[in-house]
Hints:
mainly alpha; Leucine-rich Repeat Variant; 66% helix; 0% strand
Amino acid sequence: MNRFKTLINELQDNSSSVQSRCEAARKLGIIGDPRAVKPLIAALGDGDQKLFSAVKDALDKINPDWRNSTEANNQISEFIACLIDNSETTLARRSAIQALREIKDSRVVEPLITALRDEDGGVRSMAANALGIIEDPRAVEPLIAVLRGEDDGIRHIAVWALGKIGDPRAVEPLIAALKDENVLVRMYVSEALRQFADPRALEPLITALRDEDISVRRYAAEALGIIAGPRARAVEPLIAALCDENEEVCTSAAWALDNIIGPRAVDALIATLIDRDELVSRTAAESLDEISPAWRDL
């Protein structure tokens, strides 16, 4: 048996150790024989993360465009069949999503939408994540439904996916979710809204600058730096945020002010230097160093 066939057999042998199968994938990538593409793509659905990474690296070496290959096209139907078959194990369904997420074919969108209702939370969260990566607008309404639902294990992932897709239909539901009781949802919403640069989010994000959670306040400040544009409405709340008790929030507010008003932000930061709180003063100075290194000469 020649070396190539030996490596293929090792790759396909589920009784072999993960390390041995990863090594076989690595060597197949080095050899570069296009005949390895089909078995390598099939191995994407085997469930182990280390093997998945090794197989993907090998495929990228053999054919950087393998996702559009005939072999990938033929394998998609098998991965989809595995995903929608409830008799398959949870691991098999999760592995199928991992493979489908990598291939990004339009045929996988509807099966992934169906998987948002899978009995396994891991499958549901991976499906939401995959829909965000694929960025197909057909997923928007189903993801909004997840956001409005009660599955706290994946609602924040639905928010992330909606931000990735960037469809304007998601803006109002995301704004409403800034008041959600789940802090993880609020945090992801604050970050997602920056992807839309929609003026409807301006006032809700200003309100979010006073959220009890540090990450929500930080992401809200950064989103305002993108959304506010020349609108002066966000300037005063962001100047107030320069005195936030958290250093990261202060830095984000300084960055946002520089984005909105440029050099005029320097005056606000210099004023903040007289704050009695040493941390706030130091943060203002560091922010000034980033925005205008020459401020110390003023």
